[in-house]
Structure formats: C-alpha cells, structure tokens
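Pasting two entries for a bug report.
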Amino acid sequence: QVQLVESGGGLVQAGGSLRLSCAASGRTFSRPVMGWFRQAPGKEREFVAFISWSGSMSRYADSVKGRFTISRDNAKNTVYLQMNSLKPEDTAVYYCAAGASGGTYSYARSYDQWGQGTQVTVSS
C-alpha cells in the first residue's frame, strides 16, 4: 500500500555524477525522516544520508561528505540524492527509506519503509 520507488541509477565513469530520485506514495512521505542507504554485493547495508521533513537537517556518511547531497520536495513526494565525483567504491544498490520519529537515523533499523533499490555502477 505504501510504496517507495527509486530511479536514476545507471553506469557512470569515475568522477561523473548521477541524481537518484525516490518517489513516495501513501502517507510515507509525511514521516519525519527520509534516508538513503546502499548495499554492495557481500556487504551489509550502509548508511549514506538522511534528511528531515523540512529539509533543514541532513547528515551524511563520512564516505560521501562533500560529494553527495540529499534533498526533498514534499510537494512532489520525492527525495533526491545528488551524487558527484563518483568513485568505483560507490558502486552499490541504493535504497531510499522512510523513518518514524525517535530513531537513530544512521541505522537501518530506524526505517520501516524501503524501496526496491536502484543500481549504481561506477567504472574506472
């Protein structure tokens, strides 16, 4: 019933850019926090970034600081992840997620609504 759908992934050369989008349906986007996570083959799901409902607060994993920007457009029920200066180690499936209040938003367990993911592959 509640759905998050990621898009915008693809193949890009190192140093290039991609913008991921996550469109929300239902009441999901009214939740206070939206996050992005990624998961590479054989690795655990890794926190990337989160943003508050108003967009006034956002946080990033150290590995992406200065390169990635999270934003949201509540009127469009969409959250974005602008990824610049991409590196091969950014290769992963990227997931958006919605979290309720009171969580620790760098942890996946704080989110209970997840998209299906979009593949990002960065080549050398």
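Entry 2 (this is the one that rendered wrong in the viewer):
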Amino acid sequence: QVQLVESGGGLVQAGASLRLSCAVSGRTSSSYSMAWFRQIPGKEREFVAAIRWPSGGPVFADSVKGRFTISRDNAKDTAYLQMNSLKPEDAAVYHCAFDNSRLILSRLRDGEAYGYWGQGTQVTVSS
C-alpha cells in the first residue's frame, strides 16, 4: 500500500508563492508517476502537473505553465509543487496523486489513471 502525506497549503496574496509537499511511502516500483490535481467545489477536478520516473520531464497544465514547478527530493522521498505568481483562480484544494506504473504521456492528465490519492491541502489566494 502507498501512503501520501501532503502539506504546505495556506492563505497568500496574489503574486505570492507557496510550496506544497507530498511525502510518499510504500511504493513498490522504481518506475512510477506522480501528479498534482486541484479541486474547486462545484467544478471538475483539474490537472495541474505531473512527473514520471525514471525518465521523462515534467508536464504542466497550460494555466500554470511558466509559474509552477514540480520536483522530487529522492533522499526525503518527497515530491514538491512550487507555485509562483499565484492568482485568485489558483485557489483550490490541491491533491497529490501517485501510481506505481510509469504512465504513458497521454494518460498523465487523467485522474482515473492514478491508484492513490492524498487527502488534499487547501490553497487560498486573495486579490
């Protein structure tokens, strides 16, 4: 079983930065996928960013490209979502997602492809 523990959400002003963390335990493969999705009440879940191991660069939604970065600290077994230049429309509950397979590129944006989800962390952006 995989466990994901998220942290780093909070309340910030537009233009500020936040870094979300997702600590992973219990993975069973060296080839795997991680992603961030966000959820606003009453709206569909939205893909934010994804990355795969052992190869493949990060993938971003057009709405966050150039502002957000996804990365992983292998020593801490923790993934990060660095969010810069935050906008009010970025406010949402952010969820970390994980799968024990290296998903093909076209599946990274599909939440149904991931087997495990974190509980979410709230990001609020004031204008």
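Dev reply: Rendering is fixed now. As a check, the viewer should reflect this: The mean pLDDT is 94.
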